Amino acid sequence: MPPAGAEPGSVQEAAATERHGAEKDAKAVCLSHRHVFGIKTNVRGNLHFTDEGQFLYPAGHNAIVYHADQKIQSKVFPGTEGSEGITAMALSPNRKFLALCERFQERASCAIYDTATGKRRRNTLSYAAGDEATREYVCAAFSAENKFLITQGGAPEWTLVLWSWDKARPHGSVKVSNLTGSVIHECSFNPQDSSIVCVIGDGVFKFFRLQEGTFKAIPNQLSKLREAANQNYVCHTWLHDDRLVVCSEAGDALLFDNGGDFKMVLQCSPGEPRSLLCVAAFSKGFVAGGDGGIIRVYERSDDAKEMFRKAKEVKLDGAAERVGAIAGTASGAVTALAVSPSEETLAIATNTSQLLQLSLSPSDIMKEESAVDNILTSFHSGPILGVDVCVRKPLVVTCGIDKSVRIWNYVERTQDLCKFFGEEAFSVAFHPSGFHLIVGFSDKLRLMNLLMEDIRTYKEIPIKACRECRFSHGGQFFAAVNSNTIQVYKTYTCEVVCNLRGHQSKVRSVCWTMDDSKLVTTGADGAAYEYDIIKEGRRCSDWAQKGTSFSCIAAHTASDNNVQTTTMYVVGSDKMLKEVQGGRNVNSLESNATLGQLALAPQARALFAGVAEPELPGPLRVYNFPLDGDYVEYQAHSAPVSRIRITSDELFLFSGGDDGCLCIFDIVKKASSKRDKEAALGFADEILVTRAFLDDKQAALLDLERQVEELTSRIEFQLRHRDSYHKEKMAELQEKYSEEIETERRKYEWLREEKADMERDYEENIKGLEATHTKQTQELEQSFQQKMLVEVQRYQKLAQDLEREKQEWEVQHAQILQEQRQEIEELRADFERLQRANREAQDTLIKEKELAFRSHQETLAQLEHDADREIEELKEMYEQRLAQEKDEKVRLRGQAGIHKKYHDDLKRQFLKKQDDVKKEEDQNRIKDDKIVTLVKDKESNEKEIKERDKTIADKELRIYDLKKQNQELEKFKFVLDYKIKELKAQIDPKTADIESMKKQTQAMDGELNDYIAKNKQLGLDISQLQMKQLALQEEIKGQRRRLRSDVKLINRFKIDISDCVQTVRDPKALKESITNLYRKYLQAGAKFQDADADMLKEFNRQRDYLEKSVDSLKRKLEKDSQTHRVDHMRAMQENVSLVREVNDLRRELSYLKHEKSASELQAPEGLGDVDKTQYQAEQEVQRQRAEIDELTKQLRKMEAGGLDGALS
C-alpha cells in the first residue's frame, strides 16, 4: 500500500532508474518514500520555508518538504543518479521553484523543481568554459523577479554564471576569485537591479554588473578600506529596505547601501571569532547565528549612529538542556537560518544535524528565555552504526557514533525515546516482543529493558566493541560477535549456547534462518559459514574467496520434499552479488558498485541492497528474487548505506547511513501480505514498566484522589455558604424593592393629579391661542390679497418685455446662421484640396517602399548564401581540427599515465615544502607583526617626546610672564590695601543700619501674624453665619413645599366635596361619602396639626435669634475692618520708608561695584595668595547683597499681605 500522505506517482518513484532492460511495470515490488529522519548539513542554503509551517531541507540524497501541521513529508525531490551529492539549494522569492545543485565527476548540474507539483523542469543547467569544467556549484540564488538564477562554481576556477533558467541559457560568466584562488562562500542578486550581483568569500567582496553579455566589476569602498585586513566574509543578506549586511569570520557586521557603498561597522557586532556564520533578514532587522549555538536577533534602532541594536540572544545549548533527553547533546554551530512568511517562526539548522525552531513574535522576543523546539524531532549527529526493527510493535531502534540509542515509531513518524550513554554504541538488536534490546558498546555488551520512559540495563556481557548482534526470529536466542568468534546466548537466562569459531578475521555480518535452527556468518576474511545451532554449533557448510572482504550476508531456506536447503547471498569489496548454496558459488552478478548491506523479502520476491561506495551517495537497489540481474535503484542517502532492515510483514524498509539519516520506505507489492489478511495480528500496545514506577504512580494517584476529595468538600462547603448568603440577599432585595414599589405607587398618584391640573391649564391656553391664531390669519389674508394685485401687474409688464426681446433674438439668430454656413463652405473646399495633396504624397511613398523592399530581399538572400557557405567551410575546418585533437588526446593520455607517478611524487614534495613554507610564513608573519608594533611604539614615543619638548618651552614662557605679572601685582598691593580699609570703614555703619532694619522687620512680622490670625477668626465666623443662612434657606424651602402640599390638599378636598354634593339626593351615598371624607382628612390630618404649630413656633424663635446674631456679627466685622485699615496704613508708611533706605543702599552698592571693576581693570588677571584681604572684602559685600535681597522679598510679602487685608 502507498504511504500515508504520499502523492500518487511520487517524485521518488518517477526518478527510479531500471537496469538491464527491465521494465518498471513488470516489477513485483517497488519502494515509495514514507519518511526520512535527518538532515544533510554540508549543503549551502539547506533550510527554507515553502509556506507557513512547511519546511524545505535536504535529507540524504533528497530534498524534503515537511508539513509541520500534518507531520508528513509531502514532497521528495530526489538527487540525480550518478551524482556525487547535493552541494547547494536555492528557493525563488515567490517560493514556487527550487534549484538543486549537485556535484558530478565531469560537470556540475543544477536542476529546477516546481515546489507545488513536485515536477522537475526538463532543462538542466550545466556550464563549461574551455577545457576546464566546473565539478560543483557552491552556491545559487534567484533574482527578485524569479526569472534569473546565478550559480557559483567551485575550485579552481570559481566561475559565476547568470542563467535564464526557464530556457537554460547562460547570459554571462566571470571568474570571481582573487589571484590566490580564495574560497567563495555566497552570491546573490541586488533586489532592485537583477543585472547587479554580489559575491563574498575568503578575502573577497565584489559587485558585478552584467552589460552586453559580460560581467564588469563595480568598485566598492570595502576593497580599498580592508585590503590589508584580508578578512573572511562568510555570509550576507539583503534587508527589507534593500541595504546589505555582510558578516565576517571575525564577528563584524558591515552595513552597505543598495549601490554597494560601505556605510559603517555596526556597533552591535559581537566581535567574537565565528560568531556570525549565517544571517537571515526580516522586516524589523536581521537574525544571525554562529559557533556555540548562539542566535542573535537585531532590530532597527532610532539612533542614527547605532543603526541596529541587539534585541535578543538565545543559546541553543541551554534550550537543549531544557528540552531534556530528546534534545540530546550540544547543538553546535548554527549553519542555516530561515524566517517564515509571517515572520512568526525562525527555523534553525546546526552542524550537529538538528532542525530547531524559535518564535519571533514580539511577545516572545520580550521574554528573557525563549523556548527552542525541534521542528520534527532530534536526529543522529553522525553516522548510524546499528538499525533493527521490532515484530510486535511499530518500532525501529538505531544507535550511532553520537553515543545515543533512539526508538522511532514508523507508523506515527515520531521518535518515542532517546537516551545518551557514556560510550559509543556500535550495534543494536530489537527483541521481537519489543521489550528488550541488545546494545554493543565499546566496553561491554548490554541487555536492556525498553521501559515507557527509559532504557534500563539488566545484564552486561563482557564483549568489547561488538559490531554485530542479532536476535533470533523467535526471540529465544541472540548472537553476538566477539572479534572473529560468534557467541550464541539464551535470551532469558543469558546462558551460552555455543561459541562459533572458524573465521580468520573479524566477523562482519550474521543472519538467522527463518526456523532459527541455523546461523550464517561472513567476515573480512572472505569466508561464509553455515552453523547448526541445534547441534551445538556444528558447521554445516562453508565457502571462501580469498582477497575479498565481505560486509553482509542474507539467508533463504527453501523446502523441497521435506529437505531444507539454505541459500546464502553475500556482498563485499569485489562489487559482486554472490549466491552460495551447499558450499559452492551457484550465481554471481556484477553490481558495478560496492554493495554494503542486504535484506531479503522472500514473500515479496525481492532482494534489497544498499550501495556503500566511499565518498559517494548511497542509493538502494531492488533486485528480482530469485536473482536474474534486473534491479531498480532509488536515491536514499548522501553517504554509504550502513544498515538495512525490513519488517516481518515485508511492508516497510529501513536504511541507515553514514550521513546520520534514517530512511523509511513503503514496500509496494502486487501480492497481498500477511498483515492484509483478516487473521493478521495487529500491533501490540503493551508497555514495560518497573514496580517502582508503578508504586510511584500509585502514590501519585492516591495523592491526587485525596486532593480531589479535599477540593470536593471545600467546594460543597463554599456552595452551601453561597446559597445561604444568596437567600439572605434575596430577602433584603425583596424587602427593599417592595418599599420602592410602594414609594413609586404614591409618586404615580401624585403625578397623575398634577397631570390633570396641567391638562386643564393647557386647554385654557389652547383656546386663547386659537383665538389669537384666527385673528392673525385674517390679517395675513388681507395683506396677501394686496400683494397679489401688485405682483399681477408686475407680471404683465414683464411678459410684454419678454415678447419684445424674443423678436429681437430671432432676427440676430438668423444673421449668425447665414454667416456660419458661408464659413463651413470655405473650410470644406480647403479640406478637399489638402486631402488630394496628401493622397498623392501617400502613393509616392508606397511606390518607394515597394522598391526598397525588393532590394532588401535580394540583399538578404545574398547574405544568407554567403553565410551558409562560410558555415560549411568552418564546419570542415573544425572537423579536421577535432580529429587532430582526438589523436593528440590519445597521445597525451599515454603521456599522462607516465607523468602521473612523477606528478604524485612532486605533489607530495610540494605539499611538504608547502607546509614548511607555511610554517616559515607564520613565523615571518609573527615577526612582521612584532616589527610593526615596535615601529608604531617608536613613532608614538618620538611624537610624545616632541610634544613634551614643546610643552616645556611653553611652560617656561608662561613662568616668565607670571614673574613679570607678579612684580606688577606687588606694585598694586599697597593701593588695594588702602582702598579695602576705606571700604571696611564704609561697610561698618551700613551693617549697623541693616541690623536695626532687621529688628524692625521682625517686629512688623509679628504684627502681621496677629493680623493674619484675626483675619482667619473672622473668616471662620463668616463661614458659620453662611452655614446658618443656608440652613434657614433650606427650612424656608421646606415650608414652601409644605404650603404647596396644603394647597393641593385643599384642592383635593374641594374636588371630594363637589363629588359629595352630587350625592345629596341619595342619603345613603351621601352618608358614605361624608364618612370617607372624615376618615380621609380628619383622622389622618389631626395628628399633624399640633405638631405643625409647635414646629412653626420653634422656627420663628430660631429665625429671630439668627437675625440678631447676623446683625451683631456685621457690627463687629465693620469695627475690626476699621481697626485693620488703620494698622495697614501705618504698615504701608513704614514700608515706604524702608524701600527708600533699600534704594539708597542699592545706589551705594552699585557705586562700590563700579569702583571695584575699575580697580580690576587696572590690575592683571589674578592676585593669587597676596590679595587675601580683597577676597574677604568681596565675600562680605556678597553677604550684604544677599541680606538686602532677602529684606526686599520680605517687604514685598508684607506689602502683598497688607493689600490683601485692605481688600478683605
Amino-to-carboxy terminus distance: 107 Å
Strand content: 25-35%
Give me the secondary-structure category: alpha+beta
* Gyration radius from CA atoms, angstroms: 55 Å
Q: Helical content, roughly?
A: 40-55%
Q: What general form does the structure show? A: extended
Average pLDDT rating: 83
Question: Got a strand count?
Answer: 59
**What summary fits the major beta sheet?**
5 strands, antiparallel
Counting DSSP H or I runs of 4 or more residues, the number of helices is 7
Instruction: State the low-pLDDT regions, or none.
Output: 1-26, 318-329, 1086-1091, 1164-1170
Main-sheet strand order equals: 1-56-55-54-53
Features of the shown structure:
1208 residues; alpha+beta; five-stranded antiparallel sheet; four-stranded antiparallel sheet; 7 helices; 44% helix; extended; disordered N terminus
Describe, in short, the structure shown.
The chain is 44% helix and 29% strand.
Descriptive account of the structure:
This protein has 1208 residues and is an alpha+beta fold. Helix content is 44%, strand content 29%. It contains seven helices and 59 strands. Strands 1-56-55-54-53 form a five-stranded antiparallel beta sheet. Strands 2-59-58-57 form a four-stranded antiparallel beta sheet, with no helix packed on it. Helix 5 crosses helix 6 and helix 6 (1067-1162) packs antiparallel against helix 7. It is extended and about 145 Å long. The protein starts with 10 loop residues before the first helix and ends with a helix. Residues 1-26, 318-329, 1086-1091 and 1164-1170 have low confidence and may be disordered.
